[in-house]
Specification:
about 35% helix, binds pyridoxal-5'-phosphate, three-stranded antiparallel β-sheet, alpha/beta, about 15% strand, about 375 residues
Length: about 375
C-alpha cells in the first residue's frame, strides 16, 4: 500500500502573520479566510434581511449536515445539528435507559462535556461511574479493554469514550474496543471532538449509538455549533428541546436538531469549513500533522520532555511532560513570544493544524529551549 501523500501547508488560507506560531488547534482553531467570508455574508443577511434572501439558510444547514456526515462515513439523515458537544451528550444521556447497577465507563480526566450528563444519568438510574486511570505504560486501549471485559465487574451500561485523550493526544483504538463494547450489549457514546477533521473516524466501523463533535476545533468552523451522529435505531427519541423543526415529521436525526437552527452566520461558516476539510481530505491532513508532531516529539525529547511513543499518540496532538513539572508561567511566556499552546494537566499540549509548517515547529522548540534554559 502506498503511504498517503500529506497535504501541503495551507497557511495562505488563513489570516495568520508569519511571526505567529499557533499550535493550539485543540483549543480554538482560527477560521480559514473563506469561512470568515461566509460568516461576513451571514452578518449582512441578518443586518439587512430585506436585501438578502433567507431561503438559502436551510440549504446551508443541509450542506453542513452532509459534509459532516461525509467526514465520519455517516448518512446525512443520521446527523443532528446542535450547539455544543455537551448538548450532544445530554441528548444521548436523555435517550438511554440503562438498568440500575450497571457501569458508566470512561477514561480518567475526561472533558466535562463528556462526563457531566452521564454523571447525572448515573445518579438518576443508580449506575456506577468507573474511571480508568491513566495507564503507566501509556496503553489506554489495553487498559480500557481490561475494564470492559473485567470478570465479576458490574455489567457495562454505557461506554463513553474518545479516540484520543484531550489533554495530551494519547491514542485510543476505538475500532478495537467497539466489538468488545457491543458484545456486552452496552450503549457506546463517542466524543470525537479532538479527532474529526484530523484523523479517520468511521461510524460504520465503530457503530456507536451517538457520536458528537463541534465545529470550532479541527473542522475549522464557528463556535457554538456541533454535530451529533445518531445511529438509526436511536432516532425515535426525545430532543433536549421541542421546536418547530424537530417534531414528529423531522427525518432521521433531525429530530434532535436545536432550536433557531437557521442561523445565517454560523451555518454558512460551518458548511464552508466542513466542505473545505473534506476537500483537503482527512487522510492527507493526518499525514501532514503526523510528520509535524513526529518532529515536535523528537525536539521535545531533546529538551528533556517525556512524550508518548509514536504508537500510543495521535498524529494531531502531542503532550510533553518535564520530570520536575512545567514552569507555572510557561504558556504566558510562550505567548509573549507569539507561540501559542496549552497547558493541560501536567502536560504542555501542542496541537498543529494545516496552517503550521516546519518553521513553526522549529520556532516553538527554539523558544522552549531558551525559556527553559533561562528558567
Ligand atoms: C474532549 C472534548 N470534548 C468536548 C469539548 C467541547 O465541549 P463543548 O462543545 O460542550 O464545549 C472539548 C473542548 O476542549 C474537548 O476537548
Amino acid at each position: 500500500m502506498h503511504p498517503i501523500a500529506a497535504i501541503a501547508c495551507q497557511r495562505a488560507s488563513f489570516d495568520l502573520p508569519r511571526d505567529v506560531s499557533y499550535l493550539d488547534a485543540a483549543a480554538w482553531a482560527p477560521l480559514p479566510i473563506q469561512v470568515r467570508r461566509a460568516g461576513e455574508t451571514g452578518l449582512l443577511t441578518k443586518s439587512q434581511p430585506w436585501a438578502y434572501s433567507r431561503d438559502v439558510v436551510p440549504v446551508w444547514a443541509e450542506r453542513a449536515r452532509s459534509a459532516a456526515a461525509g467526514l465520519i462515513g455517516a448518512q446525512v439523515d443520521d446527523m443532528a445539528i446542535l450547539g455544543s458537544v455537551s448538548q450532544g451528550m445530554a441528548t444521548a444521556a436523555l435517550n438511554l435507559a440503562p438498568a440500575a447497577g450497571g457501569r458508566v465507563l470512561r477514561m480518567a480526566n475526561e472533558f466535562p462535556s463528556l462526563c457531566l450528563a452521564f454523571d447525572r444519568l448515573a445518579g438518576a438510574r443508580g449506575l456506577l461511574v468507573e474511571e480508568v486511570p491513566r495507564p503507566a505504560n501509556g496503553d489506554w486501549t489495553a487498559a480500557l479493554l481490561a475494564a470492559i471485559t473485567r470478570p465479576a465487574a458490574a455489567p457495562l451500561a454505557v461506554a463513553t469514550l474518545t479516540p484520543l485523550h484531550w489533554t495530551d493526544g494519547a491514542s485510543v483504538d476505538l475500532e478495537r474496543l467497539a466489538p468488545a463494547i457491543r458484545a456486552t450489549g452496552a450503549a457506546f457514546v463517542v466524543d470525537a471532538t479532538q479527532a474529526v477533521g484530523a484523523q479517520a473516524v468511521d461510524v460504520a466501523r465503530l457503530q456507536p449509538d451517538f457520536l458528537a463533535f463541534p465545529t470550532y476545533k479541527w473542522t475549522l468552523g464557528p463556535y457554538g455549533m456541533a454535530l451529533l451522529y445518531v445511529a438509526p435505531h436511536r432516532q425515535e427519541g426525545l430532543a433536549l428541546e421541542a421546536n418547530s423543526g424537530n417534531g414528529p415529521s423531522a427525518i432521521g436525526a433531525r429530530r434532535y436538531d436545536r432550536g433557531e437552527l437557521y442561523d445565517p452566520v454560523a451555518l454558512p461558516m460551518a458548511a464552508t469549513a466542513l466542505e473545505l476539510v473534506a476537500e483537503w481530505g482527512v487522510p492527507a491532513i493526518a499525514a501532514r500533522l503526523g510528520a509535524l508532531t513526529d518532529a515536535l516529539a523528537e525536539g521535545l525529547q531533546a529538551l528533556g520532555f517525556q512524550v508518548a511513543p509514536r504508537a500510543s499518540r495521535s498524529a494531531q496532538m502531542i503532550g510533553g511532560r518535564l520530570p520536575g513539572g512545567l514552569p507555572h508561567d510557561l504558556i504566558d511566556r510562550l505567548r509573549a513570544e507569539k507561540v501559542f499552546a496549552s497547558l493541560r494537566g501536567d502536560a504542555l499540549r501542542l496541537s498543529p493544524h494545516v496552517w503550521v509548517d516546519e518553521a513553526d515547529c522549529g520556532r516553538v522548540l527554539d523558544v522552549l529551549e531558551r525559556l527553559l534554559r533561562d528558567d
